[in-house]
Amino acid sequence: MRDDPQSQSRQNASSAKNADGPNMEGVVPITLRINGKDRQLRIDPRTTLLDCIRETVALTGTKKGCDHGQCGACTVHVNGRRVNSCLSLALMHEGEDITTIEGLGSPDALHPMQAAFVACDGYQCGYCTSGQIMSGVALLKEPCGPDDEAVKELMSGNICRCGAYGNIVAAIQQVRQNS
């Protein structure tokens, strides 16, 4: 015996009543662990992780740049690995640990990479900075040669339209040398 679609829709709506997000037909309940906090949400199943983070959860540090996975402004960590959140559906990440720039540090206790970006002027307009920092932190856990060329290669998925690349590499190398 099959569940009728209307009954299933009512059941999904009922289970999602206490979640954040739009209350409309077609949304699905999901729990995402973002920056160490479980968030019960209701989202359209086509919602990207980027749009979920920015629009539903209201963490706006992660930026929407190209929306095609080419600029890296939307970089977040999923289970410690960098991900272009504009290319990933939020539903794919239930049960995974998602970290955004807001989860790295606070103004009073900056992550070492954030502090190095400030010390080395690793930003100009600042739009790409959160993605650059998230990629830089992930790079610390990846195999990377010691020279600047190796860092540049591993950071090649992140674009800075202002051209602060030298300072970005200096910031990453500073953290690598101090860790």
Explain briefly what this protein structure is.
By secondary structure, this protein is α+β, with helices and mostly antiparallel strands.
Account of the 3D structure:
The protein has 6 helices and 5 strands; from the N terminus they run αββαβββαααα. It has a 5-stranded mixed β-sheet, with helices on both faces. With 179 residues, the protein is an alpha+beta fold. The longest helix is centred in the C-terminal third of the chain and has 14 residues, at 165-178. Helix 3 (112-119) packs across helix 6. A hairpin with a 2-residue loop joins strand 1 and strand 2 (37-43). Helices cover 33% and strands 14% of the residues.
Protein traits:
single chain; 179 residues; alpha+beta; 5 strands; elongated
Biggest β-sheet: strands ordered side by side in the sheet: 2-1-5-3-4
Helix content: 25-40%
Q: Structural class of the secondary structure composition? A: alpha+beta
Number of helices: 6
Compute the gyration radius: what is it? 19 Å
Question: What is the string of SSEs from the N terminus onward?
Answer: HEEHEEEHHHH
Arithmetic mean pLDDT: 91
Beta content: 5-15%
- 3D shape: elongated
Reported for the largest beta sheet, the result is: 5 strands, mixed
Total strand segments: 5
How many angstroms separate the termini? 60 Å
Enumerate the spans where pLDDT stays under 50 for 5 or more consecutive residues. 7-16
